Amino acid sequence: MKIKLKSNKIILLLLILVCFIFVLSPKVYANCCLNALSVWAINVLPTLLPFFILTRLIVNLSGTKPNKLDKYFKNIYHTNNSSMVYFLSILSGYPMGAKLICNMYELGRIDQTDAKKMLSFCSVSGPMFIVGTVGVGFLFSFKAGIIILISNIVASLINGLIYRGKKGKDLSFDYLPQKRNSNLLYDCVYDAMISVLMVGAFIVLSFLIIEILINLKVLTHLSILISKIFNVDFNVVLSVLKGTIEITRGTLDLGKTCISLNAKLVIASGLVGFGGISVMLQSMGFLSKLKIRLTTMLLQKLTQAMLCIIISLALVKMFF
Questions:
Q1: Which bin fits 106, alpha (ψ -120 to 50), beta or left (φ > 0)?
Q2: Among 239, 186, 245, 223, residue whose Cα is nearest residue 56
Q3: Separation in Å, CA 113 to CA 74, 119, 203
Q4: Nearest residue to 117 via CA among 171, 165, 64, 58
């Protein structure tokens, strides 16, 4: 109890410090928040909002009818009703997987054990962000984007095997169609808007934290130390540290470094697989009802990032 009270006091002091720093340089940090909103509006909102609405409609209208692929996913990953969640998550990207897992849990189609296992392979970035934003936009290479995409899909499938555990409770049941709700479209649109606004708020907060850490020289000194220990370019290390907090900011800065395209590709693949603290917090917001610990997701994302790096290295040697 005392430890919890001390940790709360430390968090409170840090929050007060952030507010104080913001007040000292309001113009700098206001511009930072504006840049974050711009990234959200240009790169996230146009793709995420339609998918949030459509996938919510699909989940609600599909009732409790099992998918034909569910039996294969159950045999491989020891999870109930996970095939649709996986395919919709790789199509939509972060943090759609977590949101769909929450929706399925609320509908009673999966239990808490299923949710924890599904998180290990249903938390992935989407093709529009990987190929369009990271590949073409940041690395100026469509081929690099495709390799990162393939690496992340394969890594997610392997990652699910690592955390599948023993076979859980069988939740198979007969088809029970959902009751038609005249306000279903309104409810789905409202839910999607709230969700996408929450994602935007986390992106703004992440950009703000990164900017504060840069201005306080925390990331700078840490990057210098790591670059000297491992003899790695300072700007690359700084980009990776930014990417561990917010994926878009990290991959954007990585694309501006002077290392080779192959090196950028492999590092970007790892960052995309990891997702960043911002994505994890977004996901945990959706998964709050399931009481899944942040440390659980952090471990899952670390192994997924390592798998992405290994697979992308192999693909680069084969095709570049």
A1: alpha
A2: 186
A3: 13, 10, 29
A4: 165
Per-residue pLDDT at 4 exceeds 70 = no
Could you tell me if 156 and 90 are in contact, meaning their C-beta atoms sit under 8 angstroms apart?
Answer: yes
The dihedral sign for the CA sequence 307, 309, 310, 314: positive
Q: Alpha carbon of 293 to those of 94, 193, 212, 279, 285: distances in Å?
A: 18, 26, 27, 14, 11
Q: Are 160 and 121 in contact (CB under 8 A)?
A: yes
CA dihedral 309, 206, 10, 19 (to 10 degrees): 160
> How far apart (Å, rounded) are the C-alpha atoms in residues 79 and 190?
30
pLDDT at position 171 is: 59
The model's pLDDT over 217-263, given as tens digits with 9 standing for 90+, comes to 999 999 999 999 999 999 999 999 999 999 988 998 999 999 999 99
Sign of CA pseudo-dihedral 247, 248, 250, 252:
positive
208 and 239 in contact (C-beta within 8 Å)? no
